[in-house]
Amino acid sequence: MKFKYSCACPLGYKGRVCEIYAPPSCLDVKTKQPLAASGVYTIHDTISGSSFQTYCDFSSEPNFVWTLIESFAFSNFWYFRYQPFDDDFPRNEASPPNWSDFRLAKTSMLFVRNQGTTHFRATCDFEKDSSDINADYLRGKITTLDILSWTPYSNECILYERVLVAGVGCEDCTADTWTGGYHLHLEDNSCKLSEMFNSVPDPRREYFGYYGNEVNAQHQCVMSDASTTQWWLGVQV
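Now predict its structure.
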């Protein structure tokens, strides 16, 4: 007599006898493989049953695990300029890391957010030197600003843990933040961050996205057409 069986696989595994590791998050990779190196991983959406590839960063910041949700070159900013994170705008999701033109689908970003996300951040030229993220950088708490659902059509002073532009910035301070019909970005003409740029009259320059009116040539994300902007969701561990 033959008996048939099926396995109820624990989270993070699949296959006939649960022999395939299928991590649901970058954090799961790091938890199960503490020595795992930063790089491209296949993440399995346990809600939809689908999977996607993205870059997991385990090493650029102590006590953080980061998941890449977007990266684009300054030469491609027109594609991303009017795409807030509330929009579904997948770009090359099947073959990352395409640092010059990449974005996860909205469902994938939401799944990442729901895997314990505590923070978001933006970086410049991460793929060129992942150890140097301190010249142009922002980090905030997802409880303060949920970047996937925040859609006001005006600017607000948002509190960030850290903001740096061309090496100038502040910690635990506010920055003029825009979205709603635009890619999420900062401007330097109001809020606490503006005090760092008080030598420039009414600058209204954009940082970490949009890049529509005027940019700061010292901002690493826009120094050349090949300069890149990244956005991440992360977990503080």
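The radius of gyration is 19 Å.
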